[in-house]
Amino acid sequence: MVDLTVVILTKNEENNLRKCIESFKGIVKRFVIVDSYSTDGTKALCEELGKSVNLDFYENKFIDYATQLNWGLTNTNITTKWTMRMDADEELTPELVKEIEEKLSYIEDNIKGIVLKRRVYFMGRWIKHGGKYPELLLRIFRTGYGSCEQKLMDEHMILSEGDTTTFKYDIIDNNNKNLEWWTHKHNWYSNREVLDYQMKVLKDSEEDDLINDDTNKGQAARKRFIKNNGYYKLPLFFRARLYFIYRYYFRFGFLDGQEGRIYHFLQAYWYRFLVDAKIYECEKFDIKMESQGDLK
């Protein structure tokens, strides 16, 4: 068993949580579930799962993802050497389970964080192209050295100090919910993104540890820099079209079949276009986007 605690945030995740926890194959010491008062069977599922794994269930009011995750990291008595962030709709590949079990106890002292590769599934298909794979994300860190950056959208884990290493195998993002839920969630995301845009990008805020702190350089920091200093400098609506052309044609998104076509079209011409439409509306009518709370 690995000296590792896995922290998972939940809100109505009874359809995803079991496969997430069971994918660890019993190798971790503890699971911490921080729930924002689910109305489905999430709590009952955790009580059931707690009979076979060491699982502690907490409830806390949701303000935003970063606040909730950081609350979970600091208020749930994590005593293991390592901590891991997981989303409820993610799972480990068997190869990654073995890699964690074999390597984690022997990581050099200067290494404070471990970057994992994430593969995204959409409508049951692995989206390999369009620049989606691999997503490199800091997910495992020495307890006390990692936190979630205080950001409203596209928040990442950051280290207070130390180096990182990258493991070879993948985590899988494979949500079991349907397309109606996906579009509803991304409508909620669009409000969060517009508020983040108003608070950070328009004000040219330099308070971005992911970009500015050398400890946290990597793929996520590069993407953030390009988004803030490249994508958002392009004209409204035109940039959504350019995003689709780049992802679908130049990065070969079309190779992922009909699911890839739907995914990249919705990401660009629905989600990114919707964000631009809401930015346009806010600028036209002098609207300040309000805090969104959790996903209803």
Please outline the helices and strands.
Layout: E1 2-10, H1 17-22, E2 28-35, H2 42-49, E3 55-59, H3 65-74, E4 82-87, E5 90-92, H4 94-103, E6 111-122, E7 125-126, E8 135-142, E9 146-148, E10 157-159, E11 163-173, H5 179-201, H6 209-212, H7 219-229, H8 238-250, H9 257-285
Parallel strand pairs: 1-2, 1-4, 2-3, 6-11
Antiparallel strand pairs: 4-8, 5-11, 6-7, 6-8, 9-10
Helix pairs in contact: 5-9, 8-9
Structural features:
single chain, alpha/beta, nine-stranded mixed sheet, two-stranded antiparallel ribbon, 9 helices
What is the succession of H and E elements?
EHEHEHEEHEEEEEEHHHHH
Annotation, overall tally of beta strands = 11
Structural class, judged by helices and strands?
A: alpha/beta
Broad shape? globular
Query: What are the low-pLDDT stretches, counting only 5+ consecutive residues below 50?
Result: none
Rg measurement, Å: 19 Å
| Share of β-strand residues | 15-25%
Main sheet: strands, sense, barrel: 9 strands, mixed
- Tell me, rounded to a whole number, the average pLDDT: 94
Ends apart, CA distance between termini: 37 Å
User: How many helical elements?
Assistant: 9
Textual characterization of the structure:
- With 296 residues, the chain is an alpha/beta fold.
- It has a domain at 179-285.
- It is 39% helix and 24% strand.
- The chain is built from 9 helices and 11 strands.
- The chain has helices at 17-22, 42-49, 65-74, 94-103, 179-201, 209-212, 219-229, 238-250, 257-285, and strands at 2-10, 28-35, 55-59, 82-87, 90-92, 111-122, 125-126, 135-142, 146-148, 157-159, 163-173.
- The strands form 2 sheets. Strands 1, 2, 3, 4, 5, 6, 7, 8 and 11 form a 9-stranded mixed beta sheet that branches.
- β6 (111-122) and β7 (125-126) form a beta hairpin.
- α8 runs antiparallel to α9 (257-285).
- The longest helix is centred in the last third of the chain and has 29 residues, at 257-285.
- The chain is globular, with a radius of gyration of 19 Å.
- The mean pLDDT is 94.
